[in-house]
Design brief:
Number of strands: 22
Shape: globular
Structural class: alpha+beta
Strand order of the largest sheet: 3-2-1-4-5
Radius of gyration: 21 Å
Bound molecules: adenosine monophosphate, glycine
Number of helices: 14
Length: 430
């Protein structure tokens, strides 16, 4: 089968890396891809947002499957266009993807279907005065969110009423978030550990992949600004088999059934971002795609054939795929970022040391560029996802392997966290 992967980050590098291991792959192409992906697959210079171009490429080149990495093309309806053209695509329709692109839809959907989440109120563009009045009186801390897509930057946790008013002004400032900030969701602050669970859905049935934990803050000890994710590990020991059973029964099953009953059949990866509270798992957010950088640790632990799984999801056949058992080993991904990320940063810094790595590590490229002279330079905020995978043994050894690799890599201004996956150690130590 010919397969097209759409996107250009670490998540797409991990998708390509895993798909390449499938026996049924004939041609593997990534659009637009990146220099790391180019070592494994063909790349085609078509932007992820160019639905027409991607459709034409998939048609002419007889792609048996197209896999969408990022949320924007799904929110723009690429799955609907492929379906009209009779082409197989992994990812939900625009209406099903609304579970990510509209936080107000997602919150009301969860309320309708009894899916546990944070208590909330929604304020539309004309209700700013109501929001101001509500924030003066609401329980603290409180969480404010831009309702639209905001690349992980539209969420502010506020400890005081003053902070909440400032956050409201910031989110509704058109210059910062455009239409994403027109509607604001004000939420109860949830306490607990976070976890990410990916359900691969065919509209009716699903399997889950290994639970992961992301590290969203820029600095060690979960300090600093929210980012796209500074590292991840899997499996997350906080998601014990009994917690996973609750997540399936109380969250994933009602979500899939709810989407079906509302005429929004969910085909694709349903990403549940969860808070494991003392009262049980609650949804922080749903995403309509694989997470980044969680994919970089979840896919290497999947023992099945990813191509077979994704095709089964597209064809309504997930029931034929075996639910994977909890992995014996572990994977740890440390993101190496540019100085200044998630705010302004410079690019074009030469990356060195990638030749020195061992078989236990995979370096997923997130923001890199190949220069005409063959050298590799930085080209984004998140630059590399240095990932160690071990098939057995304690996660401590996987953490050591990831950092041993990180310590061989250098570029000017590199920044990374030193505490990725440390929570897993605390969990195993009891
Ligand atoms: P989101 O983009 O909705 O995943 O939010 C980004 C991050 O903000 C989450 O990973 C959490 O760390 C935090 N967050 C979001 N909503 C809440 C909430 N209701 N309570 C506590 N923390 C939250
Ligand atoms: N790792 C967070 C996300 O992909 O949204």
């Amino acid at each position: 089968m010919n397969v097209l992967v759409v996107g250009s980050g670490g998540r797409e590098h991990a998708l390509v890396w895993k798909l390449k291991q499938s026996a049924r792959i004939e041609r593997l192409v990534c659009a637009p891809g990146n220099p790391g992906i180019a070592t494994l697959a063909e790349t085609a210079p078509i932007a992820a947002g160019d639905t027409r171009g991607l459709l034409e490429f998939a048609r002419v080149n007889k792609m048996g499957l197209t896999v969408i990495g990022p949320e924007q093309p799904l929110a723009a309806g690429i799955a609907d266009e492929f379906q009209k053209a009779g082409l197989r695509l992994f990812g939900p329709s625009r209406r099903a993807a609304e579970i990510e692109w509209s936080k107000s839809f997602a919150k009301e959907f969860m309320r309708r279907h009894g899916i546990p989440s944070a208590a909330f109120r929604i304020f539309g563009a004309r209700q700013k005065a109501d929001a101001v009045a509500y924030l003066a009186t609401c329980p603290l801390p409180v969480v404010l969110k831009a309702a639209g897509l905001a690349a992980g930057k539209g969420v502010i946790v506020c400890a005081t009423a003053d902070e909440a008013q400032q956050a409201l002004a910031h989110l509704t400032d058109n210059a910062a978030f455009g239409s994403a900030g027109e509607t604001i969701v004000v939420e109860e602050f949830l306490e607990g550990e976070e976890a990410s669970v990916f359900a691969i859905c065919d509209g009716y049935q699903f399997i889950t992949l290994a639970p992961a934990q992301d590290h969203k803050r820029a600095l060690d000890g979960d300090q600093g600004m929210n980012t796209g994710g500074m590292g991840a590990y899997a499996p997350a020991p906080v998601v014990s088999p009994s917690v996973m059973a609750q997540i399936k029964k109380n969250i994933l099953e009602p979500a899939i059934r709810g989407m079906e009953s509302e005429g929004r059949l969910y085909r694709g990866c349903l990403y549940a971002g969860l808070m494991l509270t003392p009262a049980g798992p609650r949804v922080i957010e749903f995403n309509c795609r694989f997470g980044d950088p969680e994919t970089q640790v979840v896919l290497p632990l999947y023992e099945g054939d990813l191509l077979e799984l994704l095709v089964a999801a597209c064809d309504g056949m997930v029931g034929r795929i075996e639910q994977p058992s909890p992995p014996a080993g572990s994977a740890v991904c440390v993101v190496m970022a540019s100085e200044g990320y998630p705010e302004a940063y410079e690019t074009g810094k030469t990356i060195e040391g990638l030749g020195l790595l061992t078989d236990e590590t995979i370096v997923f490229h997130a923001g890199t560029r190949r220069q005409p002279d063959g050298s590799l330079v930085t080209a984004g905020g998140r630059v590399l996802g240095v990932t160690a995978v071990r098939g057995e043994g304690p996660i401590a050894a996987t953490i050591d392997a990831a950092y041993a690799a990180v310590d061989k890599i250098t570029f000017d201004g590199m920044h990374f966290r030193r505490d990725i996956a440390r929570r897993a150690l605390n969990a195993t130590a009891g």
